[in-house]
Amino acid sequence: xxxxxxxxxxxxxxxxxxxxxxxxxxxxxxxxxxxxxxxxxxxxxxxxxxxxxxxxxxxxxxxxxxxxxxxxxxxxxxxxxxxxxxxxxxxxxxxxxxxxxxxxxxxxxxxxxxxxxxx
Length: 119
What we know:
InterPro entries: Ni-pincer_cofactor_biosynth, Rossmann-like_a/b/a_fold. The protein has helices at about 1-5, 10-15, 20-30, 55-70, 95, 100-110; strands spanning about 75-80, 85-90, 115-119. It is α+β, with helices and mostly antiparallel strands. It folds into 2 domains: about 1-35, no CATH class; about 45-115, Alpha-Beta Plaits. A 3-stranded mixed beta sheet has the order 1-2-3. It starts with a helix and ends with a strand.
């Protein structure tokens, strides 16, 4: 939030006093398909503090996360550590993730993105 303040980012929903819960309820009432979609932090949060973030690296993380979402994992973060991808998932989804066939597919996809998987 400090960076947002420093850059004069406008947050109209926050300024209106709306909470995440309020926004979800209003979205549901309006029939928006995203009303119960899991929230995701900014992709730049996937990088260690002080690391240079490039569009290429952001795309790499985005593609890796999208692949995992397409595999059926609903809450995922791919942390970028140079050539290593540290994957974070909810404990309730471990059964999906740790299936050997799924792990092999994930590993192969990450290799295409020039990343190594760290569990």
